[in-house]
Sequence to fold (994 residues):
Amino acid sequence: MLMVFLQQALNGIILGCIYALIALGLSLIFGILEVANFAHGEFYMLGAFMALFSMSGLGVSFFPALLIAMIGMGIIGAIIERAVFRPIVGKPLINSMLLSFGLSTALANLALLLFGADPQKIESGLADYHLRFFGLHLTAERLMVLVVGVALVTLLAWFIQSTRTGKAMRAVSQDRVAAQLAGINVSRIYTVTFAISGALAAAAGTMVGAMFFVSPEMGFSVTLKCFIIIALGGFGKIRGVIVAAVMIGLAESLGGGFISYAYKDAYPFLLLVLLFMLKPQGLTGGSGR
Amino acid sequence: MNGRMTGAKWLAGLAGAALLCAVPRFFSLDYYLHMFVMSEIYAVLAMSLALIVGFSGQVSMGHAAFYGVGAYASALISLKSGLPFWVTIWCAGAVAGLLSFVIGKMVLRLRGHFLAITTAFFGVLVTLILNNWIELTNGPMGVPGIPRPSPISLPGLTLSFETRADYYYLGLVFVGLVAFLLYRLVNSRIGNALIAIRENEELARSIGVDAMAYKVFAFTLGGALAGMAGSFYAHYILFISPVTFTIAESINLLVMIIFGGMTTLFGPVFGAVALTLLPEFLRMAGSLRLVIYGVALVIFIIWLPLGVWGTIKSKWMERRG
Amino acid sequence: MRGKGILRSVLCVAALLSLGCAAWAALPDGNVRVGVVMPTSGTLAYDGGLALNGVKMAVDEINAAGGVNGHKIELFVEDSAGVPATAVAAMEKLVGMQKVVAVIGDFGSSGTLAMMDVAKRSQTPLITPISLAPKITELGNVWTFRGCDSSEMIAKAFTKWAVQEKKLDKWAFIGVNTDYGRGSVDAFGKKVKDLGGEVVYTEYFQQGETDYYPIITKLKASPANTLCLLGETVDLSRVVNQFHEMGLQEKITVMDPTSGTFNPKFLELAKAKANGIIGASRFVASIKTPKAEKFVADYQKRYNIPPEKYAQAGYDVAHMVAIAVKNADSTDTAKVREALAKIEYEGPQGKAHFDAKNQLQIGEYIIAVKDGKFEIVAGPIMAE
Fold:
C-alpha cells in the first residue's frame, strides 16, 4: 500500500511539473496585463504541433524540436498580444475572458482544419527506458519531463529576479502607471510577457506530446486547470503557482487512485473551494484581488 | 428609465407580437422551427444569466449547471411520478432555485476571478455528478423517453405538442413572461439596488443596501429560471444526457449575453437568437464554421464591447441627449 | 371506321407505353438523396471521419456502377459536433430542406437517441452505423435501425471463448465513461460472472483523458490476470502505453472485445505494445473473403490506410440504404424503411440482416495482435 502511495505521489509530482510550466505563463499574463487568457491551452497545443512538424519535416531530434517550438511560440505569442490583446488591456475581465475564448475556438478549429483530428505522438525515444528504484517505477521520458520542467522554472525565476527586463516586468505588475512614469516601456513588457508564456506553454506541450499525444483538442481542459492553479497559488505569484501546480498534480493522482477516478476533475476545484473557505487570502497570502 | 408605455409603444409591441405569432406560417419547415424553439430556450437562459452577470455584476461560469439540474429534475420527476410537464416545470424551477440559493450563499462572498472560477467548479461538479450518479441520473446513457407536455386547449386554440409549431408558441409565451418579470424587476427598487452593487459594492453597502441578500436573490432567481428553461428543453428534445450541460455551454451563454449586450433586457434575447441561428447559417462554411465563429467573437469584443443592442441603445440615447 | 381503328390502336399502345414508363419511373427523376449526420468537429471528429470515409466510398462505388436503377446517389453530410441538439438540427435540415430518403448517423448514442424523435415524426429511416446504446433498438421506434453489432451480442460470443477456453478468471475492466463504456462493462461483467469468472476491478475514465497512471498503479496492486478495455482508439492507446510503462505486460493479458484497438491508428500509436492484445471484432482488414479483400484493397488505395470497423460500418450501411431504395424502387420513405427491414445483405464483414427490433445480426471474429498484424483466431461466431 505504501508503495502504491509513493508511486501515485511520484506520478502526481511529474504531472504538477507540466502544470507549473503552463500555469506560470498564464499567471504572468494575468499579473502583468490583467487579462484572462483562455486561449493559453491553444498556445500549448500549437507548440506541440510545431515540435511535431519540426521533427517530421526538418528531421531534427527531440531536444532541438523542443527549442524550435519554444522560439516559434514565443514569436506567435508576441504577435497575438499585439494584434488581439493590446486593444482590450484595461477593460473589464469578462471582455478578455470572452475574447480569449473566441481566440481559443478559432485556433483549436483552425488546427483541426489544417492538421486533422488525428492524434499523433512525438517520439522522444526515451519511453522504453525503464528506471526502477526502491520498487518505484519511472520511464526515462518522465524523468526528462521532471528535469526539463525544473530547469525551465528555475531559469524563469532567475530571469524575473535578476535581469533588467524581469525587474521591469515585476514593476509593471505592481503598478502600471508608476512603472510608466519611471520610464519603463510598458507595451514592450506586454509583448515580452506573451512571448515568454508562449515559449513555456510550447515546452509543456512538446513534453506532453511525447508522454501522451498531440491533437487539436488538447488545449481547453488544460486552460481551465491552470486557472484553478493560479487562483490557488495567487495571481501573478511564481512560488505560489509552483506549489499550487504540484498540489493539483498530487490531488489528481492520489484522489484518482485512492478515492474515485471518475471524479478526478473535481479534486483541483475542491482544493480551491477549501482554500477559499479556510484562507480567502490565497495560498501565499497577499491581496485577494 | 421611462416606465410608462405610450400609445405608440403599445402599438409597436402589438405589431411585434403579431409578427412573432405569424412566424410558423412563413417558416413552416421543421428545421427552421427547431432553430426558433432552441432560440427561445436560449433567450430565457441568456436573460436569466444577464440578471446575474449584467445587472448584478457577478460573473458566473456555471450557469449551464442550473439548466441541467432543471432538465434532469423535470424529466426524472415526470418519468417516476407521471406528473405532467405543467407541474414538473415548476419543480424544475424549485430544485434549480434551491441549488442556486445554496451555492449562491457559499460563493457570492467572493469577487471577480475567484467567483468566476468557483462557479465554474460547481458547473464541472454538476456535470460529474450527472455522469457518475448512475442510480439517479442513468449517467452518460442519458434519460430517454421523456413525455411531451400534455395537450392544452384554450378557446379557439389547441396545442397538442405533436408539432414543433406548438412548442414555438409555448416558448413564445415563456420568453414573454420571463421578459415581463425581469422588466418589472430591473425597473423596481430591487433592480436599482442590484445596479448599485454592480457599479460599486462598497458604496452600495455604505448607504445601507444589504448587498449579499440582493446578490443571492438575483443568483437564485437566475438559477430557477435556467432550471425552468431546462425543463422546457427536456420535454422538447425528449432525451437528455450530460453532454448538453457542460462548461462549454456555460461559456456559450456568456458569449450570447456579451454579444447582445448584457446590461439591457433585449440584448441577451438578441444575442441568444443571433448566436443560435448564426452557427446554423455557417453550416455552409463547413469546417471553417467554428473558426469564423471564433474570429468573429474576437473582432466583436474589440470593436463592440457593449454588444450589438447595447451599442445601438447607447448611440440612440446619445442622440436624444 | 378504319381511321377510328388506327386511332384506337395508337391510343392503346400509348396507354401501354405510359403504363410501362410509370412502372419504370417509380424512382422519380433526379438523384437519390441520402443524408449523413456525423461529428466532423469536436472530440469525436477523427472516428466520425472514418465512418464517413466508408460512406463516401460506398456511394462512389454505387454511382460508378450506374447508381440505383440508373439514378445517382447524392450525399448530404451535416456535422453533429457530438451535441444532441445540433444533431437534431442537422437531421431536421436533411429531412426538411434536402428531402433525403434516409439518414445515416449519428456516432455517439446521445445524438442518435435525440434524432430518433425526428425520424419518427418525419417518417424517415435513421440508421446508425456506430451507436451502441441498447435503448436505441428497445424503444420500439420502427424508423430507427442499428447497422452494427450490440454489446450483448459481442459479450455472448467473446466471454464464452475467453473464460471457458482460455481459462481467464480474474477480470479487471477499464472503460470509457460513456453509454458505450458503461453499457459494455455491464454486459461483459454479467457474462463473466455467469460463466464462473470474477470481476475484481472496475474503473471508468472520461473521454479524452490523458493520464491513466492513477488507475494503472491501482491495477498493479489488484489480483487481476485479465484487463478488459472498453473504449476508443486514442484513449486506449494511452492506456496500453502507460500499462507497458508500468511494466504490467507479463502479469496481465490485455483484452479488447469491442475492438477499439484493431485499427492501423492504434498500431501507429502503440507500436510493439499492441502485440498480445486479444479481442473480438465484427471486422478487421485481414478477413480473407473475396468481398473483404476487394473492400480492403479499394479503401487502402483511396485513403492510404487500411479500413477498420467504423469505415466498414459506414460502407455497409450506405450500401444497405442503396439496396433498400433499389428494392423499394421508390423514394417513398415508408417503402424504403420496409425494404431496409427485410434486407438480406452480404458485405465485406459477412452476411447480415435486421431482427424484429431493427438490430443487425452479424458474426464476430476473435482477433489477436501478433507482430503488428491482426490475426483471426476464430470466427465468425454468430451470437444467435
Residues 285-289 of chain A have pLDDT under 50 and may be disordered. The interface with chain C takes residues 1, 4, 7-8, 11, 15, 109, 112, 116-119, 121, 127, 130, 137, 139, 208, 211-213, 215, 217-218, 221, 252-257, 261-262, 264-265 of chain A (CB under 8 Å).
